[in-house]
Specification:
This protein is 47% helix and 7% strand. By secondary structure, the protein is α+β, with helices and mostly antiparallel strands. The protein is globular and about 65 Å long. The protein starts with a helix and ends in a 9-residue tail after the last strand. 45% of the residues are buried. The structure holds progesterone.
Length: 523
């Protein structure tokens, strides 16, 4: 369970369910005495010499000690003050180690990355991914590695050096700019719908070459089901701790199934269309690249393994979608929110743009090297408000160790990226938005080792370079053409954030002022 799933476990456990749990504790304890060999109550027990652990009750685990007020990343940061930066707890029956500092995070993700590259099986994500036929949530296996390599290679066909992503973003940015510049400027407006629509459009083009006009019915459908998945998955977390809760009617879970069905119907149609029109030439989009790679003969003769099936292709497309839209649009909205708080940062980015690119031509990938400060602004946005403040859970695939403490096979490990990114020992004034911290004395970019916005190691985000490029292209084009301001008399954006499927800013309003020569948004 990722932060979003965790938060729903912590904050929205209905009293009736808690009561039910307590009754079940008794029942299970009785049954365990009566039925010989009735499975272990809790998955792998902590090894001896082990990590400080929160108290726990049978079945409920440490949940009663977690309170219900704080989102997981803040709760864990607080618990780390009490129990130490490496501590453990029981999420229901699951023994879970929580890592809060960058040395241990790097050990789990990088040095012992292979040991901890597993993923737990969860009800909601299994529903979302047809039982783990995706990249993010699927457990580690040779097939997963093959699948991931295929996705990675397919992504490189569209990323840096190909100009494809640049063409797509630049075509979408034009209409985004027009839309923003025609918003109700005197009262201000929420930039979120326009930004999300633009990012969705980019992903649609990348994945299946669909180009949508404003208000297109299919685009609306995509946005609607995606929204449905986001809303319901955030509420469905309890079944991930107690899968047996599935036997009870669960509104969120049924709505999730409904949205997944709509999603799969649309994507299956796209897949069939692509199969029918697949040619020997260059792949047109991600679906083409995956289909070509799928038949690329990875299946070794005589092996029983099924290889990369149509289901895998479908789930990859679906995930590219969910991951590509939620994360990128949220990061953009965080950065805009911080720019309203720090007009001096916005001015410095624009000065850099004016000096290095000017206002006559669009900013392109090749300008990236000349715009270090903009890169720092993007990094600082991802540091101070990581979209995934607790990374997707890892599991130990063998007996291993963290910080010298033994950790058993099957243990779940949560990396609290939030506390890594806000550690006062490594970041000066961690709560201050200061892009300059990513520049050294000579004005060169630096990448501190405690900056891990995409995770690291075998499970590092497969879309990292695509994401960075997209953020760069969106922000550079927007800030070249317009300035973002707070509407007169409106409050500055709230920077606390709310945890949905990712950590999002609360809605806020902006006013957009065109820069010289860009009054109509396009040239
Ligand atoms: C968002 C909603 C959706 O339609 C599909 C997905 C699947 C991939 C998820 C994505 C979600 C939320 C953000 C995730 C992403 C995989 C990696 C990314 C969790 C649930 C992060 O780790 C931030």
């Amino acid at each position: 369970m990722s932060s979003w799933l965790l938060s729903s476990v912590l904050s929205s456990v209905p009293p009736s369910v808690l009561l039910l749990c307590v009754l079940l504790v008794g029942l299970i304890l009785v049954l365990r005495r009566l039925v010989p060999g009735a499975g272990p109550l809790s998955s792998p027990a902590p090894a001896r010499g082990s990590i400080p652990c929160l108290p726990r009750l049978p079945v409920l685990g440490s949940l009663p000690w977690l309170g219900g007020r704080l989102p997981p990343h803040l709760l864990f940061t607080q618990l780390a003050h009490r129990y130490g930066r490496l501590f453990a707890l029981y999420l229901g029956p699951h023994y879970t180690v929580v890592v809060n500092d960058h040395q241990h995070a790097r050990e789990v993700l990088l040095q012992r990355g292979r040991d901890f590259a597993g993923r737990p099986s969860m009800v909601t994500t299994n529903l979302l991914t047809r039982g783990g036929k995706d990249i993010a949530f699927s457990d580690y296996s040779p097939l997963w590695k093959l699948h991931r390599r295929l996705v990675h290679n397919s992504f490189t066909l569209f990323g840096e050096g190909t100009g494809r992503l640049q063409d797509i973003v630049l075509s979408v940015v034009d209409s985004l700019c027009v839309e923003l510049l025609t918003g109700p400027q005197h009262r201000g407006f929420d930039p979120s719908p326009a930004v999300t629509r633009a990012v969705t459009n980019v992903v649609c083009m990348l994945v299946f070459s669909a180009t949508y006009r404003h208000g297109d019915a299919e685009l609306q459908e995509v946005i609607r089901y995606n929204d449905g998945i986001v809303q319901t998955i955030t509420r469905g977390g309890l079944v991930d701790v107690y899968p047996w809760l599935q036997v009870f009617p669960n509104k969120s879970l049924s709505k999730l199934k409904e949205c997944v069905t709509v999603r799969d119907r649309l994507l299956t149609r796209k897949l069939e269309e692509h199969k029918a029109s697949l040619s020997d030439g260059d792949p047109r989009d991600l679906l083409d690249a995956l289909l070509k790679g799928q038949t690329g003969g990875q299946r070794s003769p005589g092996s029983k393994e099924e290889g990369i099936t149509d289901d895998h292709v479908l789930m990859t497309a679906a995930e590219a979608f969910g991951a590509g839209v939620e994360t990128t649009s949220t990061t953009l909205l965080w950065i805009l929110a911080y720019l309203l708080h720090h007009p001096e940062v916005q001015e410095r980015v624009q000065k850099e743009l004016d000096e290095q690119v000017g206002g006559e031509r669009p900013v392109g990938v090749s300008d990236r090297g000349r715009l270090p400060y903009l890169d720092c602004v993007i990094n600082e946005g991802m540091r101070i408000r990581p979209v995934s403040p607790v990374l997707i859970p890892h599991t130990a695939m063998t007996d291993s160790s963290i910080g010298g403490h033994p950790v058993c096979h099957g243990t779940r490990v949560l990396v609290n990226l939030w506390s890594v990114h806000h550690d006062p020992q490594h970041w000066d004034k961690p709560d201050l938005f200061n892009p300059g911290r990513f520049l050294d004395d000579q004005g060169q970019r630096v990448m501190p080792s405690c900056f891990l916005p995409f995770g690291a190691g075998p499970r590092v985000c497969v879309g990292e370079s695509l994401a960075r490029l997209e953020l760069f292209l969106f922000l550079s084009s927007l800030l070249q053409r317009m300035s973002f301001r707070r509407p007169n008399g409106a409050p500055l954006p709230n920077l606390q954030g709310q945890l949905g499927v990712v950590l999002q800013p609360l809605p806020y309003k902006v006013v957009v002022v065109p820069r010289a020569g860009w009054e109509s948004g396009v040239k």
